[in-house]
Amino acid sequence: MEIFTFDDYTSLSIEAAKIVADRVKQKPELVLGLATGSTPLGMYQELVRIYHAGQISFNRATTFNLDEYYPIDRENHQSYYSYMWSNFWSKVDLTEEQFNIPDGSTLDPLQAAKAYEQKIEALGGIDLQVLGIGENGHIGFNEPGASLSANTHLVKLSQETIKANSRFFQEVEEVPKQAITMGIGTIMKAKEIILLAAGQNKAEIIKETLTGTISTQVPASMLQAHPKVIVLLDRGAGKLVNITGS
Ligand code: PGA
Questions:
Q1: How confident is the model at residue 242 (pLDDT cuts 50, 70, 90)?
Q2: Nearest C-alpha to atom 7 of ligand 1 is from which residue?
Q3: Which atom number of ligand 1 is nearest to the Cα of residue 39?
C-alpha cells in the first residue's frame, strides 16, 4: 500500500486525476471503476479539464460505477446516475455504451446485480478502481458486517449511511433504504485501487482502515490484503497515520 498526503483537497484531486489519466494513456481500453460522493468531485473536475485541454481521451475506455441506490429512477437528482451524468459522463467523450452503473429502477435487482458482475468479468475485470470511504468504513455500499468476498449484490443501507446521505435529500425518509453495490469481492479483484479521503471526519476511519485489524466491521480494512493500492489523503484525513510518502 502506498500512502500519500497532500496539503489540500485540490492537490489530492489533481493527483487522483493524474493517476487515472496515466492509466488511460497506457491502456486506452482501460476498464475504470468509478465512485460517487463528495470526495471524487475534484478528481472529476480535473479529468474534465484535462480532457478539454486535449490531454486525455476516454473514447476506448469502459467505466463501471461502484453502486446505485435501490430503488431510484435515474432521472432523480439524487441518483448516482444523475451525479455521474452531470459531473463526468456528459462532459467527456464517453458514450452510453461505455459507461455502466447498476440499474436502480430494475424490477429484478438480484438478476441485475448478477448481470453487472458478469459484464465486468466479460471485459476482463476492472483495471483501476477509484474508491471513497464512509465514516463507518464502507466502500461502495458494503456496510460494516458485509461479507468480505461478495460480488455485486443488493444491500440494506445502515442507519449511519442513511443519515450521512440525508444531507443530499429534503427529508431523511426520502433516502432509499437499499442499494445495488459491487461487493468487496468485486473490488478486491480490481488490478489496482486508489482510495481517496479528505477531511478530519475521515481521520479515525482512515487510521483503522490502514493500521487496524482486517475485519468485516471495517470493510475498507480488507484493502490491506490487496497487492496494489494507492491511498491519497488530505492533511485532515491523514492526521492520525504515519505517512510514508507525499
Ligand atoms: P463522501 O462519501 O465522499 O461524500 O464522503 C464517501 C462514501 O460514503 O463512500
A1: confident
A2: 134
A3: 3
